[in-house]
């Protein structure tokens, strides 16, 4: 009898682990849009350009600083061979960032709206990003 009880408890605990959570259609659509966004060629190109820029110019200034003036004074502190190379990297990164932002802002806005509606923003964020990680990395 003790074995049967233990087995039943174990099976019920497995059922809870294997059941998928059900989310509202609105939240499901948001998860799908985020997954598509992070899988898109535009996002991958943005990550590539951002990584390359970061490696070549690890101490880049704030976007509020005039980059061309800054790079002229700090080229030796970078891994770029010329000012022209640094300016091209910045131009390329800005171009893909603009494309990436156009795609990301609408879905980020929807997430923030749902977050606010949830009534518990911290709990929503934890649930949302845990679920998103599972969907992207599983």
Could you walk me through the main structural features you see in this protein, from its secondary elements to its overall organization?
The structure is a single chain. By secondary structure, the protein is mostly helical. Helices cover 79% and strands 0% of the residues. It contains six helices and no strands. It has helices spanning 2-18, 25-39, 41-56, 67-74, 83-118, 121-137. α2 (25-39) packs across α6 (121-137), α3 crosses α5 and α4 (67-74) packs across α5 (83-118). The longest helix has 36 residues, at 83-118. It starts with a helix and ends with a helix. The model is unreliable at 4-19 (pLDDT under 50).
Assembly type: single chain
Poorly predicted sequence stretches spanning 5 or more consecutive residues: 4-19
In terms of DSSP E residues, the strand content is under 5%
Shape: elongated
- Percent helix range: over 70%
Could you describe the largest sheet, including whether it forms a barrel?
none
Number of strands: 0
Q: Helix/strand-derived class?
A: mainly alpha
- Can you write the helix and strand succession as a string? HHHHHH
> Alpha-carbon distance between the termini?
39 Å
Mean pLDDT, rounded to whole units? 87
Q: How many helical elements?
A: 6
Q: Work out the radius of gyration.
A: 23 Å
